[in-house]
């Protein structure tokens, strides 16, 4: 028997070191709970990921009316700045490119100084190093003796009184062998719940200056031609670093994507847009720990977000769900992940009281 198998069970094992998992782990650790986080990737953050300049390749914004994330920013000593709004919008269709007065794409919102990954970096830093293990994909969660759960990863097994699945439900259903006695409806809904951004590519083009602003443009665009379907100004505070970013369906990100993106940006914003310092394409559908191999084709059924089956723990109150997709409010946002984490922490602390 290994030393790990011989030790008393952890109070909680959290699967996934994205924003939901780390927020839950930090709150539990702060409450004196013995918590261990296992993360499949060699990094924390999940879909909170940035370029070397701190420009977001995943989660980007938060908004007034999202008290948890704004409160977390304050508590962690981080900062936000306003999304750039001033200027006109360009729209592209089969007839060409038209310019419309005002910003028709963006609303008042906040961006994270240093990128959204600053949130998960700060949360991870609150945990003892031995309580956060990277490169540890969880292969199975099983019932063990005495009512505890067994969590297996990299040839080791951890025992826990509670397990928190802080990964998209469909990823858990695809990559983790779950207990056979889970309710059939839960397993089905988990497998069918779409992954937010799971079939989306995010493209960031970095420039020496935000030249489109000098031309009276907001950096906001919509296109029916593509490959990018919507585009926004992603420049940092005071316009530095200067950047545009756009979303595209992953299916449109072929081997010629870089050239197509540069050509489209030139059509929308002029010749200078064709020559960015760098183009970064983050295709989330190619991320094993974001997009399940079983991802369904066609339009995702977002009505499954926040489904009732995720709201209460199963296995006698020991198995919990804490990704943004499981939240009945703000699903897909960082705020939604924090709602799910808060619900999970409340259930675990209540069970211990």
Automatic annotation (TrEMBL):
Residues 108-349 form the Amine oxidase domain. The keyword Oxidoreductase applies. It is an enzyme of class 1 (oxidoreductase). The gene is puo_2. GO terms for molecular function: putrescine oxidase activity. Keywords: Oxidoreductase. It comes from Nocardioides dokdonensis FR1436. Its EC number is 1.4.3.10. This is Putrescine oxidase. It holds the Pfam family Amino_oxidase. Belongs to the flavin monoamine oxidase family. InterPro entries: Amino_oxidase (IPR002937), FAD/NAD-bd_sf (IPR036188), Flavin_MAO (IPR050703). Coiled coil: none annotated.
């Amino acid at each position: 028997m290994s030393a790990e198998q011989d030790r008393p069970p952890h109070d909680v094992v959290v699967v996934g070191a994205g924003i939901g998992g780390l927020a839950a782990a930090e709150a539990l650790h702060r409450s004196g709970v013995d918590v261990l986080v296992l993360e499949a990737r060699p990094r924390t953050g999940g879909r909170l990921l940035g370029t070397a300049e701190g420009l977001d390749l995943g989660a980007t914004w938060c908004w007034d009316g999202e008290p948890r994330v704004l409160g977390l920013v304050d508590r962690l000593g981080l900062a936000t700045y306003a999304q750039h709004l001033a200027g006109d919008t360009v729209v592209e269709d089969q007839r060409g490119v038209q310019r419309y007065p005002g910003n028709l794409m963006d609303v008042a919102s906040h961006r994270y100084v240093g990128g959204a990954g600053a949130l998960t970096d700060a949360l991870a830093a609150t945990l003892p190093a031995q309580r956060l293990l990277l490169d540890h994909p969880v292969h199975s969660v099983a019932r063990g003796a005495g009512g505890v759960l067994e969590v297996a990863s990299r040839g080791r097994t951890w025992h826990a009184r509670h397990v928190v699945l802080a990964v998209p439900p469909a990823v858990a259903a695809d990559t983790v062998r779950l207990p056979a006695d889970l309710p059939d409806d839960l397993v089905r809904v988990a497998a069918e719940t779409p992954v937010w951004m799971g079939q989306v590519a995010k493209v960031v083009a970095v420039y020496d200056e935000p030249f489109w602003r000098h031309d009276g443009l907001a950096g906001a665009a919509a296109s029916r031609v593509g490959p990018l379907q919507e585009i926004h100004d992603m420049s940092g505070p005071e316009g530095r670093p200067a950047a545009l970013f756009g979303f595209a369906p992953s299916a449109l990100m072929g081997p010629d994507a870089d050239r197509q993106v540069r050509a489209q940006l030139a059509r929308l914003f002029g010749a200078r847009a064709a020559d960015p310092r760098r183009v970064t394409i983050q295709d989330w559908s190619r991320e094993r720990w974001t997009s399940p191999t079983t991802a369904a084709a066609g339009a995702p059924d977002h009505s499954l977000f926040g489904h009732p089956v995720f709201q209460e723990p199963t296995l006698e109150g020991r198995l919990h769900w804490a990704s943004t997709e499981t939240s009945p409010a703000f699903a897909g946002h960082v705020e939604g992940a924090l709602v799910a984490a808060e619900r999970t922490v409340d259930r675990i602390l209540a069970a211990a009281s």
